[in-house]
Specification:
The protein is an alpha/beta fold and 250 residues long. Helix content is 37%, strand content 22%. The protein is built from 9 helices and 10 strands. Strand 1 and strand 2 form a beta hairpin. The longest helix is centred in the C-terminal third of the chain and has 22 residues, at 228-249. The N and C termini lie far apart (45 Å). The chain binds zinc ion. Zinc ion (ZN) is lined by residues 58, 61, 139.
């Protein structure tokens, strides 16, 4: 039996509750693999001060969508006053089945450079008019030995350490010096975009965001083998810090 965090219908019921409490409308994004997908957009979203949040693109990373809805429930009273675009779960079939890909084995996080997947096409359409102060893609990793964060480098205004610092109160940083193929320091991977790499493998969400939509772009990862509650709280700590940063910028 799957854990409750894989129950997509329950997740969406909770998002309906958030939308009701916040005075927002949960909008229909797409229908895929038999599931209705939704997003939330506040009327404050204008200019370049916004925050883009997305979870559940990989279905076997359940702490991310759980943390996002819990954070939204906790902040429901002030959600409408913040400039937000939220995608609560981009791969419901994967979440329900506890697998990374969609039902046809496609990794959605390699498909942001074109319109060949209906969910990604819908995300691109909804996001098109907007520019964000900060974008956060929420993930988990089975190989991780602690929390870690990718920060796509742009200019001098960086705050990856601050995001990690908040989450480190809950889970330790990944001690590895190399994570995937990148150099890491105390769980932070900060690098410039090398467009060529992604042109051959396909654009992840964060790369597409960096290129076209966001000033500061992060991918946060929690270690899948740590306790679920700690993983959820680590994600929520990063969300809190992102929200604090955009308030400071507005
Ligand atoms: Zn992932």
């Amino acid at each position: 039996m799957l854990h409750r965090v894989h129950d997509y219908r329950h997740l969406i019921d909770r998002w309906r509750g958030v939308a009701r409490a916040a005075g927002l409308r949960l909008r229909r994004l797409a229908k895929e693999d038999g599931f209705d997908l939704f997003y939330l957009e506040t009327s404050e979203l204008a200019g370049t001060s916004g925050l883009y949040l997305s979870a559940g693109i990989h279905g076997d990373e359940p702490a991310a969508p759980e943390a996002l809805v819990r954070w939204a429930e906790k902040n429901a009273a002030r959600l409408a006053g913040m400039p937000l675009l939220i995608f609560p779960c981009l791969n419901p079939w994967g979440l329900r089945n506890n697998v990374r890909t969609d039902s046809r084995g496609r990794d959605l996080n390699r498909m942001f450079h074109h319109d060949r997947h209906p969910v990604i096409t819908a995300v691109r359409r909804v996001t098109r008019p907007h520019r964000f102060h900060t974008a956060l893609a929420m993930h988990e990793d089975y190989d991780a030995q602690g929390i870690y964060l990718y920060e796509v480098q742009r200019g001098r205004n960086r705050f990856g350490e601050a995001l990690l610092g908040r989450a480190m109160r809950i889970l330790p940083p990944d001690p590895r010096r190399r994570i995937d193929t990148s150099t890491a320091k105390n769980g932070l991977i900060r690098r410039r975009l090398v467009r060529k790499i992604f042109e051959s493998m396909g654009y992840p969400e964060a790369i597409w965001l960096h290129l076209f939509h966001s000033q500061n772009t992060f991918t946060f990862e929690t270690p899948s083998e740590a306790a679920l509650e700690l993983r959820v709280r680590a994600h929520m700590a990063v969300l809190d810090e992102c929200a604090r940063r955009i308030r400071g910028a507005a």
